[in-house]
Amino acid sequence: MLENHEPLTMTECLETYYNHYEEEERLLFRHGQVEYLTTMKLFHDRIPPNTKICEIGAGTGRYSVALAKEGYDVTAVELIAHNLDILRTKITDTMHIQTYQGNALDLSFLPDHAFDATLLLGPMYHLITEEERLAALKEALRITRPGGRLFVSYCIADATVVDYIFKKAQLSRILESGLMNTENFDLYSTPKELFVLVRKRDIDRMISTLPVIRDTYAASDGAANFMRETVDAMDDETFSWFMKWHLSICESPDVVGATHHSLDILIKK
User: Fold this and answer.
1) Does 3.40.50.150 match the CATH number of domain 10-17+25-51+105-268?
2) Which of 3, 145, 205, 250 is deepest in the core (most CB within 10 A)?
3) What pTM value is reported for the model?
4) For residue 19, what are the CA distances in angstroms to 12, 23, 55, 84, 139?
5) What is the model's pLDDT at position 190?
């Protein structure tokens, strides 16, 4: 007789996933570096050193630790204990960095208007409902000072349609699972699927309800994930040229939909 089991929650699924997956290994490949380098470039263009920043969903500290090394006063919040343990091993006495285990939906342990910039570079990947995503944005805004900036990353749906459903021949599985609207190609997620896939129009609808002005919206990895093997095989000079090209177009309306990850930069009114 089969036992009945309650479906796993998103937190339980994330704990299982990140206990066995090394996110930083992806960022060490050249195609993964594109997203990181783009995010850091756009951040550095706007946020000077020696300012207070908060990263919500800091993971193992790829951004938080790097920014703390540069002199930023960092508060890092991470949901998954395994990730937080790794992050804490990287902290040295010269860094101004505080760490908390916490949920993007409830940052009540952090004060209002405390940070010059707040980073949400992971939570939107895993918050299934728009209500949850809006709640996370509102909490991030609450802790950000007026005039401060939010840096928010998303997983974009159409890159998955191209790269996974068609290129990797997963159409039958997606249709059988009921994970795609066959009229407009919207993609659905469950805790089991882990990643939430949106389009820019979904993001625009959310931020239209918030007290923000959009600074810019960028394709943070652009073409890189569509040509992983080619990018990974580039020598240093070719990759440098690739990054120059990517950075020159990543904010263009012509390309912001053709990306696996996007970065939305918002200014709090």
Assistant:
1) yes
2) 250
3) 0.90
4) 11, 10, 20, 11, 26
5) 81
